[in-house]
Design goal:
Layout (H helix, E strand, L loop, with lengths): L1 E7 L2 E6 L10 E9 L2 H7 L10 E2 L3 E9 L11 E4 L2 E2 L5 H4 L10 E2 L11 E4 L5 E3 L6 H5 L1 H14 L7 E5 L3 H12 L3 E6 L2 H9 L4 E4 L5 H8 L5 E6 L5 H11 E9 L12 H6 L3 E4 L7 H10 L8 E5 L4 H10 L6 E5 L1
Parallel strand pairs: 11-12, 11-14, 12-13, 14-15, 15-16, 17-18
Antiparallel strand pairs: 1-2, 1-4, 3-5, 3-9, 3-18, 5-6, 6-10, 7-8
Bound molecules: zinc ion (2 copies).
The site of one zinc ion (ZN) has 9 residues, from helix 2.
């Protein structure tokens, strides 16, 4: 099969590799769409802590079942499906407590096992597989994974509900998904970013107000938006410059408010004025990946409650993947989701 193999930092080659064979309890998936994620870009640059080489990246994908082990009765060849991106142990205290996204021995597609920038992927036993609704496209279904990450942040960690005021810092795919989900939960939503292009997408996806932090006063706009009280919930989805953005969250959250950090960049640090958390009783929570949210995301896309299409700015073929990664890096102001279509 043809696959994009990352041999080392900045060394990705589209080449012939052996097609995987599904073993007992396993499924072979013919990939139809795989979106490039910010973390794929980190991995490409050799900055992702989990990736070992050589590795086929790609964890936001959908496809068709090509072959499967005879023990699997719930699916058949030809089914259009999405799968969970992690294999967790199922045995540790976190897995048993219903929080498998915190499992210490997680193995993820595209990081510790081969992912979906390839014609086929072998899905190991123990990974959940979900049938796609008839009406949604493979590209939309591939975005159920990042939407699931945002759903974990918005519902499980921030517990956004009707009437909340919510700020989302960062209009990347996770931030945009979080804004759309918060809106769907009945919140009033403000989104910040440094690029007008990204803020325009935020408006299309339901943001009530957008602020370009390079042009506008975030604190002033936030107080105006929340009638001088500050936000009930603030979701940090930037990741790259948290020493700045986490400070910002404390300036715009209300007394007694909640900050949820979903933005991700390995090695990041933030300096916090702890007295501010104490005196104003602010809470801060992390949000890691997702578990079990994909079926809900497929339903949200199918029903039209969430439209992920405004995020899809480019579709490319597998042999254009290096250009796709470069585009994501260099043309941030004109690129959101780049999807490899097969
Ligand atoms: Zn991702
Ligand atoms: Zn576990």
């Amino acid at each position: 099969m043809l696959a994009a193999v990352l041999h080392g930092p900045y060394d990705m080659r589209v080449e012939e590799v052996e097609t995987p064979v599904p073993g007992k309890g396993e499924v072979l998936l013919r990939i139809k769409a795989c979106a490039i994620c910010g973390s794929d870009l980190h991995a490409y640059k050799g900055k992702h802590q989990k990736v070992t080489f050589p590795r086929i990246l790609g964890h936001e994908f959908s496809g068709v079942i090509e072959a499967l082990s005879p023990e699997i009765k719930d699916f058949k060849v030809g089914d259009r499906v999405v799968v969970d991106t992690n294999k967790t142990c199922g045995q540790c205290p976190q897995c048993k407590a219903g929080r498998p996204n915190l499992c210490k021995t997680t193995v993820n597609f595209g990081f510790k096992m081969d992912g979906a920038f390839a014609e086929f992927v072998r899905v190991p036993e123990g990974i959940n597989i979900y049938k796609m609704p008839e009406s949604i496209s493979f590209e939309e279904a591939a975005l159920a994974q990042p939407l699931g990450v945002a759903l974990n942040a918005v519902r499980r960690r921030a517990v956004v509900t009707v009437g909340d005021t919510v700020a989302v810092l960062g209009a990347g795919p996770i931030g945009l998904s979080a804004a759309a989900l918060a809106k769907a939960c009945g919140a009033q939503v403000l989104v910040t970013d440094t690029e007008d292009f990204r803020l325009e997408i935020a408006k299309k996806m339901g943001a009530d107000e957008v602020v370009n932090v390079l042009k506008d006063d975030v604190v002033g706009k936030s107080l105006e938006f929340t009638r001088q009280n500050g936000f009930d919930k603030v979701i940090e989805a930037v990741g790259g410059m948290q020493d700045t953005t986490i400070q910002q969250t404390t300036q715009i959250v209300k007394p007694g408010g909640l900050i949820v950090v979903v933005g991700n960049f390995s090695g990041n640090k933030a300096t916090l004025r702890i007295t501010e958390f104490k005196d104003r009783e602010i809470e801060i929570r992390g949000s890691r990946g997702q578990h079990g949210t994909v079926p809900y995301c497929l339903k949200l896309i199918e029903s039209g409650v969430i439209d992920v299409k405004p995020m899809i700015t480019h579709t490319i073929a597998l042999d254009g993947i290096v250009k796709g990664l470069e585009r994501l890096e260099e043309q941030k102001g004109r690129t959101m989701k780049v999807i490899v279509k097969f």
